[in-house]
Amino acid sequence: MGVEITFKKREENEMAVLENLEPQKVFQFFEEMCQIPRGTFDTKRISDYCVEFAKERGLSYIQDEVNNVIITKPGTEGYENSEPIILQGHLDMVCEKTADSDHDFTKDGLDLYVEDGYLKARNTTLGSDNGIAVAMAMAVLDSKDIPHPPIEALFTVDEEDGMGGAHAIDLTQLKGRKLINIDSEEEGILTTGCAGGIQYESIFPVRKEKKSGSLVKFRLHGLLGGHSGAEIHKQRGNSNKMVGRFLYRLSKEVDFQLASINGGTKNNVITLDTTAEFLVSNDLASLVLAKAEEMEKIWNHEFMGEEPGLKVDTSVSDVADFEVFDAASTKNIVAFLELCPNGLQEYSRKLEGVVETSLNIGVVETKEDCVRTSFHIRSSVETRKQQMKEQVEACTLLTGGEGRIIGEYPAWQYDPNSELRQIMVDTYKELYGKEPMVSAIHAGLECGLFLGKRPDLDCVSFGPNLLDVHSVNEALDLASAQRSWDYLKAILKNCK
């Protein structure tokens, strides 16, 4: 076949977990994808899988230097001269796992299972965001009995961290103007706009010294986490902010010096597990333990049962010598974590119930000589996006740090003259006897970047019900996936 693929494809006679699920082809391709490591920035193998898929079917393809793939298929009988339709999704997935999991996202396939009508992955994210889009597009490309115009399937990479594939893609290679993005997460909603985003990093230099005392390990874990855009309105706990709050409260009664603080790995995930280590004099250890217990009770009271897994673990070492941050470095970092904004900031003034502006401190990481934090700032209003960046920047500078933008993407603005939206609305009415909701989402979608390159594009996004994406509880509603597949086929039939 040319390119060696390092995963085991399902043999014809081999039972698969999703063997009996409908639509069969969609889940066949999805399951094959789930056996290929495809975390953000680790997309060569999944990109090559798409290329081999195209070669096996004699379809034209383009694979660019960053691993984006375009696969084209002619229109079926009667649709040969129709305007091409672009089907788009991203190949990479967010890689999160439970604290006790030994899963290696660079080597291991996902352990899929079905429970109560939902598809899940054991102890890890599922990658239905956005593997389901790729699987549906592949099922169309593979089909021999689905009426459709010429298809241009656009599979991008590194969407989950900076949208690198969308930044790099050469859209002049596409002839189509109508683009269906299958990266929305709520059935019955057509997404016609999305927030823009900034990824912002703050670096705090740390001076260290040797001190004697008891080392306290304070860990907050068991939070629900989730997608920092799509689920930010649920006001779930962010363990980085919460631990910062605890440390600030503690600093009013106890002198301590940080040794480390770490929470989260990705700025687009609401952090669910953070650990801080700090040094106290031995005679204050019992007071720290009491304050930790008190804080756990406060949080449980404030969340009113909506963070059912919330847990605080605190341990104290014997007296010894430890390398810790000096007092000034400790003060700066604790102050920053207490001061910095986080979470939902503003709802839209025009679209009821839609979040306008938010931010998420997704990463706090202790390095050799500094502490690094990383935010994902989102807003559908450009000036508000910049204001939130300035607010984080001000907090950073006031507490002795330096900040920088590490990624940025534009908002996708609503097009009142969209032909594709009308086709999709009419098709939905044909199938279900009612109109879909037309809305904008607070998460970032690649359509904004595409429109920056090709202003003539007509973009609409839809997708099946996905729950708790970017978390270990991620789930795909199987019945919704079937309906969304039927909907996609009907849309293509109506694009003659």
Tell me about this structure.
The chain contains 11 helices and 22 strands. The protein has 496 residues and is an alpha+beta fold. The chain has 2 domains: 24-195 and 412-493, 3-Layer(aba) Sandwich (Aminopeptidase), CATH 3.40.630.10; 198-409, Alpha-Beta Plaits (2-Layer Sandwich). Strands 1-2-6-3-7-20 form a 6-stranded mixed β-sheet. Helix 1 crosses helix 3 and helix 5 (239-251) crosses helix 7 (327-339). The two termini are 35 Å apart.
CATH fold name of the largest domain: Aminopeptidase
Count of individual helical segments = 11
CATH superfamily grouping of the largest domain? Zn peptidases
Task: For the largest sheet, list the strands in their spatial order.
Answer: 1-2-6-3-7-20
What is the general shape? elongated
Give the number of domains. 2
CATH architecture of the largest domain: 3-Layer(aba) Sandwich
Quaternary structure: single chain
Low-pLDDT parts are 1-15
The rounded Rg comes to 24 Å
Give the overall average pLDDT: 94
Features:
5-stranded antiparallel β-sheet, alpha+beta, 11 helices, Aminopeptidase, 496 residues, 6-stranded mixed β-sheet, Alpha-Beta Plaits
Q: Outline of this structure?
A:
By secondary structure, this protein is α+β, with helices and mostly antiparallel strands. 29% of the residues lie in helices and 28% in strands. It folds into two domains: 24-195 and 412-493, Aminopeptidase (3-Layer(aba) Sandwich), CATH 3.40.630.10; 198-409, Alpha-Beta Plaits.
Layout of strands and helices, then pairs:
Elements: H1 24-34, H2 44-56, E1 60-63, E2 69-73, E3 85-90, E4 112-115, E5 118-121, H3 128-142, E6 151-156, H4 164-168, E7 178-181, E8 189-194, E9 196-205, E10 208-221, H5 239-251, E11 257-263, E12 274-280, H6 285-303, E13 311-316, E14 320-325, H7 327-339, E15 343-347, E16 355-366, E17 370-379, H8 382-398, E18 402-409, H9 419-432, E19 437-441, H10 447-453, E20 458-461, E21 466-467, E22 475-477, H11 478-493
Helix pairs in contact: 1-3, 5-7
